[in-house]
Design a protein that fits this description.
Length: 490
Amino acid sequence: MRTSRDDRCLLIGTPDTVELLARQLDVVPEAPTPIGAVYVGDQRSPGRLLDLGGLGELESVCRAHRPAVAVISLPGALAGQEREIRAVLTRCGVRTRVVPPLDELLSREAIPIALRRPQTVDLASLVGRSPHPVDRVQLERLLSGSRVMITGAGGSIGSEIARLCASFDPALLVLADRSENAVFEIDRTLGATHRGVPRRAVLHDVVDREATRVLVEQTRPDLIFHAAAHKHVPLMEDHPSHALTNNFFGTRSIADAAMEAGVGRFVLISSDKAVNPTSVMGATKRLAEMYVQGLGRRGGGATQLSMVRFGNVLGSACSVLPIWESQIAEGGPVTVTDARMTRYFMTIPEAAGLVVHAASLSTPAQAEVFVLDMGQPVSIVELAKRFVRAHGLEPVVGRAPEAWNEMEISLTGIRPGEKLHEQLAYDAESLRATAHPGIMALRDSWAPDEATLAAMVEHLDRARREGSGERVVRAMARFVPQMGGQRVAA
């Protein structure tokens, strides 16, 4: 029997799952050699494996027997103990692999792996950054006793902003979203966690200009966070009219309503994809920025306008990590479009906290563009490798797995509208520091005059009503010339 240090394997589970796991390892070529088992629960195994003890003895077992790897196989009912087991193994320097019981894998429709084994990956550690802290004193001055409206309140960023605002005792939270399920869920969550905070859940589409004006007049918010937007780049390439209508004309509706009602502060949630956009989605976000900047240049109102640009957020709905989680649960492969691709990342809580901080930094002088400190861009392939390893598997790129513990990372090719690398500011723009270390502001950012603004609205409105995707793209490129050049270059 092979017993080298690199080959020693500890099995962890119930008597049934350990016995099944041992039989599986017998038929796997080059599988590690089990040295014994640690059992979870009160039962012990009369089988062929050496009984090394219970879960309470796991650390001493690891110290005494020095396994190279531990393989965990727990039934769904005991999956909650996996985090504790992993923590002990990490302290002992033992690599971890997880193998769900075969019978539960075969009945995955009834017990999805993603539900049985909650994700415990430290998202901030995946991108190698320390989140910027929240200055609660500053946010309390901004939010306590204020009436706050959030559009897209059921989305990943909108709902996190809602949770953060609720923790500072606002006078009212207006949760607006056109998705019934999304707004129901954030309203239900806040009802359970912040029962004393007055709130109003509203089924509302900001594209409806008149209804938006009425909603703002009725609820009288002091502060609006406009997070409602279409965000999926490939899908918006196929539906440019929808993207323009939602992202640009929706922003126009809510920004105009805020100005007319004298709302104290209005914050547009923008994107790094608005910089030198190659995609329809990026162009619509840049046009939305330009519209808000144009309102700021017009001046004369009581509303302090601002925009916040940032990159991707880890774990948001339908983003890369939930997709990879599902792919791992299904046995792979994990997909990445291009090995050269990089992106800026931060966690949802950090992004929401900095967005709210940025609202407190806006001034009446102009519509400012704030840029969040995203750190260094992250290689998507390296991120995928870290994510796979965090699940106890070894990533292999561009080939089929050859060992029991390998997970393939498949390169699928760049999609329409995607860039290899994102930017946070145009080359001509310079960044200046603000009072908060995680937030920068653009210096001397260009804003369209009133005539350009009116022409832009009229031209884009006519294009979207014609219904031709090609016509809409040409119309956007007229006002975002970088888009045309980038798309041709791509």
